Amino acid sequence: LSKNHRKPKDRPKPPISLQPRNQQSQSPLFGPQFPAELRVIIYESVLGHPTRLMHVVPFDDYSKPIDVLYTANRFSLKGSRGILEMRSVTPTPQWHIIRHLQVSTMFVPPMTTWPYVRELTAWSPGRRPPPDPYKDWAEACQALRDLRGLESLRVEIIFRNDYNSRGPLMADHELVTVLEPLNHVKAPLFEVEMNVCVPETVHEMLGKSAFTTVVKQRPYDDSIGNMDWA
Question: Where is the composition biased (Polar residues) (predicted)?
Fold first, then answer.
C-alpha cells in the first residue's frame, strides 16, 4: 500500500473500569423529576422493534423495561415445539403480556404416521424437517389461549402429503384436529394462512371461526423439505 492508502490503525479500546457502577437510582432517567411516561417511550424505542431481530439481556433492576421486551416486539415461533419451549422459559406475568406473535408449522397426513414428538428430536440439519406432532398441537394451542394481552396472531400452516403417500392431502377430521384448537384462541387480529381450501363440511364442524383464513401456496424444496416462509 502507498503512504496515502495505508490501512488505518485500530483505535485503542478504552480501559475497562473496575470501579463499582452507580446505582440506577442515581441516573437522571430514574430521578423523581423525569416523567415516567417519557421513560416508557425510551424503553420502547430501545428494546422494541416490529421487524428488527434482537437479543437483549436485561440486567440490574429491569422489572419495568423487561415488560417492554414482551409488549413491543413480535415473536416468531416454529410449531408446537417452539410454542411450548418458549412457554417453559417465560415467566407467567410476561407470557400474559405478549402482544404480537407469528407461528409457522407443517402437518403431514395421515395422523397415525406423525403423532409423536420423537420425530422432532431425531431431526438434524440437512434432513427433511419433521412435521408438527398432532398430539402436541392441542397443548401448544392451550398455551396460546393463555396469552391474555394478545393483539395480533398469524399462523402459517403447510399441509403436505406423506413423502410416500398418494392419498388425499388432508381428510376432514385431520383439518378439524389442527384448526379446532385454534378456534379457542382469542386475538383482535387473528389470521391463519394455509395452502389448502377448507371444505364447507369442515366449516360446519368448526362452527363460528375465531380467525380469518387465507389460502396461499408457498415454495417447497422437496430435496430437503425446506419451507419458504418469507
Answer: 19-28
Q: For residues 132 and 213, what is the distance between their CA atoms, to the nearest angstrom?
A: 20
Domain map (residue ranges) of the chain: 73-227
**Angstrom distance (rounded) from CA 22 to CA 107:** 53
**From the CB of residue 135, how many other CB atoms can be counted at a distance below 10 Å?**
14
Q: Cell numbers at residue 96, please?
A: 400474559
Share of the chain above pLDDT 90, in %: 36
pLDDT at 33 over 90: no
Phi, psi for 145 (deg, rounded to 5): -65, -25
Give the H or E element holding residue 213.
Answer: strand 212-215
- 67 CB neighbour count, 10 Å cutoff: 16
